[in-house]
Design a protein that fits this description.
Radius of gyration: 20 Å
Strand order of the largest sheet: 2-3-1-4-5
Bound molecules: adenosine-5'-diphosphate
Largest sheet: 5 strands, parallel
Number of strands: 5
Shape: globular
Structural class: alpha/beta
């Protein structure tokens, strides 16, 4: 059964050309999914549908899907990947986590490492953090020249247009949690032995810069939500809501792409006998 064409994608997409602000955005999203159980059931169904669509995308081998995940520390990027893509066979999925650039990467333009990590035709690529770090953390912490950063928005739009025009559908998600929810998750990381590895005391320094990060997100989302690569801002205070919305948008997008299994052109299946 197909989903209602792009209903979720439209509901959470940021309109291109419109000034966007995170302040005032709902971070709970309970209107869409009041029931945790229903959300979980839907997410599993959508994840299975994504697997089937990914198989067709891989077999077709003509186009790719790039899913960009951004969000402040603890916003649930890893958890989203797990919930939405865990049903996918690993053959056709590539995930890249972007950390602070190495010396080699810093010696190139900021999109060099990103372009290399883009999914080949037939693949779903997932970016856990992305080139947007170069207008987010880099801007907030003054890690590059101001004028250089200013030019990056247009460079990103041109880069994403190139991807779109050459067969890669780009879907961008900002996982939007409240500052209170981040505090809760940081405390939980510290208190839980199995989660402590995820905690980095430097996260507390970033937390102090919360308003600057929000401002940098506002600018990046406003300037880089385009018809060819829209931003979606996802309420992410509840894992089940976040997963259900992202899974549905990915599914809707793949259904719209409608990849097809290739059929033979130079032989007729009914005429072949395997003895
Ligand atoms: P994560 O928080 O994504 O699970 P880490 O704790 O290793 O993983 O954090 C990765 C760090 O790398 C983040 O603090 C992020 O801001 C930083 N980073 C990613 N890309 C860049 C970049 N282009 N320039 C500077 N820092 C970056």
């Amino acid at each position: 059964m197909k989903t209602n064409a792009k209903r979720f994608a439209k509901a959470y997409a940021v309109t291109p050309g419109q000034r966007f602000r995170l302040a005032g955005c709902d971070t709970a999203g309970l209107k869409a999914f009041p029931s945790k159980e229903d959300a979980r059931v839907q997410t599993v169904k959508d994840a299975e549908a994504i697997d089937a669509l990914q198989d067709r995308l891989y077999a077709e081998g003509r186009r790719a899907l790039l899913v960009v995940l951004q969000g402040i520390d603890c916003s649930g990027k890893d958890g989203t990947v797990r919930a939405v893509f865990n049903h996918c066979g690993p053959i056709g999925v590539r995930i890249t986590a972007f950390k602070a650039p190495s010396a080699d990467e810093r010696a190139q333009d900021f999109l060099w490492r990103v372009h290399k990590a883009c999914p080949p035709r037939g693949f779903i690529g997932i970016f856990n953090r992305s080139h947007y770090e170069d207008v987010l953390v880099v801007k907030v912490k003054g890690l590059a020249d101001k004028d250089d950063i200013e030019r990056r928005y247009a460079q990103i739009n041109a880069f994403e247009a190139l991807l779109a025009e050459t067969g890669t559908k780009v879907l961008k998600f900002m996982l939007n949690i409240s500052k209170a929810e981040q505090a809760e998750r940081l405390r939980e990381r510290i208190a839980t032995p199995e989660k402590r590895w995820k905690f980095n005391p430097a996260d507390l320094e970033d937390r102090k810069l919360w308003p600057d990060f929000m401002k940098a997100y506002d600018t990046a989302i406003t300037r880089c939500s385009t018809p060819h690569a829209p931003w979606h801002v996802i309420p992410a205070d509840h894992n089940w809501v976040r997963n259900a919305i992202v899974a549905r948008i990915v599914r809707e997008t793949l259904e719209e792409m409608n990849p097809q299994y290739p059929q033979p052109t130079d032989w007729t299946p009914s005429r072949i006998k395997v003895v």
